[in-house]
Structures are given as structure tokens and as C-alpha cells.
Amino acid sequence: MPGHGDRDSLRTERYVNDLMAAAGRRADAVPADPDLDPGVIAAARRLRADLTRVHPSFRFEEALSERLAEAAARLRAGLPAPATGVSAALAPVQPATLTAFPSPGPIADRDTAAPVSQWRAILPPAAFRRIPEVAPRPSRPFIVGGVGVASAAISIGAVYVAWRHSRPTSGRMGKAAKAAHSRSAGSGRGRRSGATHGIFGVLS
Amino acid sequence: MNRPVFGRSEESARPARLDRDRGLVEAARRDPRKFDALYRKYLAQVYSFAYYELRDHHAAEDATERVFMQALAGLPRFEERVDEFISARAPVAAGRTPGAEEPAEAADFSTFRIWLFRIARNVVANERRRDRRRPVSPLEEAARVAAPDDVAELAATREATEAAYRAVQRLPEDRRRVVLLRFVNEMSTSEIAAILGRSEGAVRVLLHRALRSVADDLRGRTN
Questions:
Q1: Residue range(s) of every CATH 1.10.10.10 domain in chain B
Q2: Which of A122, B71, B174, B223 is the most exposed place for a label (fewest CB within 10 A)?
Q3: ipTM of the shown complex
């Protein structure tokens, strides 16, 4: 058996429920229990009319939506959501785990994608097909190293040819060849100039 | 996995009732980017609650941001907390006559909203505690809350709104919260009870006493 206070509370609750439902229906008249305090009825009607819901600014709504989206992306990636406001300054910094980062991805493909596409655009299909297979996994050091080795080989070869020309021959065949060469090159030109002319003359 | 918020009652054998926000919550749990739907749905409610409690737009914005950030981060744990609401409602359900009509408000029940407002209650309480040393209540703000479009009625309405706002602000904390959750956020007695951690009977008494206090306050101002 409810007491006097409980009965008043139940009456008040019933009236407030009816009042809120009537507002939803846009109805004005709300029947009230005759035993209910008229002051309570007036206060409820007043609060129903005056305590309206407040909406924040559109700018705040969109800004917070963006921050939540960023936090959601972090959570999706396995990272902790950023703390906000005052708590952000107090939040402990958590080290990110290695697994939280996205996988490295196809770095080799990314490196080779541009040159291969350029070759494809420049070369005819038959020539393009003769290009050594670089798509699977050509490493950058390999390409750089190949150019270096070729450049060094050319340099060594040029030095060897120049040295070989300047080196005095000791064999009979060598002496005969040298005599024949000096005759054809003219008596006024030295050995060195002849060697130089031979090299650069051929090259040019 | 969908779990019913209200389990199947042995006595009444009613079908299990689902949280009305369950679909949105499940989607947000699968993909946190879907949390935006819940955010848009409850932004005004959370902001209003914070605004009426803190009496300052900037403080309300800060509190609102904290609430939704905490909700987003804590959403994976929300499933476990659902059980708390079930057990909180259990004594009420047990006291009801088997087969009796459930109140219509129960059909509109959202445990997510209860959980969200529990976060809001804590955030706002912390904020108020922090700001207790600060002078509060820029009351001119109150008039802007419900300013009507009709300019002729503006002055009278502003006066009335301000008076009601003052009366609510003078209420003790627990009564004020009940009033705000009931009139601003249009929550049912059972929802308010779950948010505040009180029984439904206690919430009814708090509401009744709050209205009597407001009535006395307004009457005194009128006289």
C-alpha cells in the first residue's frame, strides 16, 4: 500500500508522462488528477515549455564529427584513440605496437612501376618484351651496381689499351709491327702522339 | 552477435526486446567510422544536458566532446555493461504483476542512451567539480535557449525562461538532474533511474519534490 508521498509521486509522474506525450502530439489540454497540487501542474507545464533542447553550432558539430572520424580511423588501425581536452594532457603516452602499423606494401613494385610503364610507352611491343624481367623484384642496388660495374670495365679497358700502346715491345713480331707502324704514321710523330691519335681517331 | 537487452521473461513469456539502437551500435562496433550515426542522433541531447548543467556553451562543447570520445573508445566494452542495466531493471520487472501491461516508454528503451548518459553524467560532474571555484551562470544565456521568433513576445518569454532556468539551477543536484533528463531529454523514469543509479521510486519522489520546489520558487517570484 503506497503512502501519501508515494501516491503524490505517482500522480505527478502520470501527469508529467501525459504532458510530455501531449507535447509530442501537439495537444494542449492535458487532464490532471484533481488531487494533484496545482502548483506542481503549473511548474511542470512551465518547465515543459521553457526547458527546450539546445543544439550546438553547426561548426562545432562538424568539427567534432571530423575528430571522431580520425579517432575511429585510429581505432580501426589498432591505435589508441586520442584523448581530448584536459585529459589529453594527462593521458599516458602509449607506445604503438609494430603490428598496429599498416604493412609495408609492395615497395619494389612501386619503385619499378614508373620505369616499366615508361618503357612500355616508348618501346614497340617486341622490344619491350626483350627487356630483362624487372617487374618481379628488381632491387635498386642491383641496377645501380650494374651501371657502376660497366663504367669501371670501360675505364679499365681504355687504360689498358693506352698502356699497351706505350709499352715497348720485346719480341720480333712486335718490333716488326712497330717498324711498319712507324713507317705508315710518318717520321715526325712520336709514339705517344700516334697512340693518342689511334685511340681518339678511332673513337671520334 | 545480437543479444537481447531484456531477456525472455519466464512468467510473461514475452518476446525478447531489443535495444532500439542495437543495429547502430553493432555497426559502429564492427566499423568505428559508423559511430557517426550514433553521434548525430544523440549530439543535441548530450549537448543540452551538458549545457543546462554547466551553464556555458564552451564548457558544454568540451564536455560533449569528451563524452563522445569516451563513448567511441569504450564502445567495445559496452556489451558487457548491458548486463548491468538488465539487472538494474530486474527488481522492477520482478515487482510487476505477471502479464501486466508494460509501460509504453519501455518499448522505446535504449541501453546505449543510458550508457552514453552515464558517461555524460560523470563528465559533467567532473567538470562542475573543477569549476566550483569559478563564478557560474551567465543567465543571459538562458534567454537565448528558448528565444521565440515572435519579437513581440520576446521580452515576456525571456523573463519567463530566465525565471524557470533560475528555479531549476537552484535545485539540489539530484533533483536538477532528474528534471533535466525528464524535460529536456524526455527520458522515462526507468531510464533516469538507470542513469543515476537510483530506483524508479526514488526518481519519482525526486521529480515530485523538484516540481514542488520549482512551484514554490516561481510562486515566490510572482508574489
A1: 152-223
A2: B223
A3: 0.73
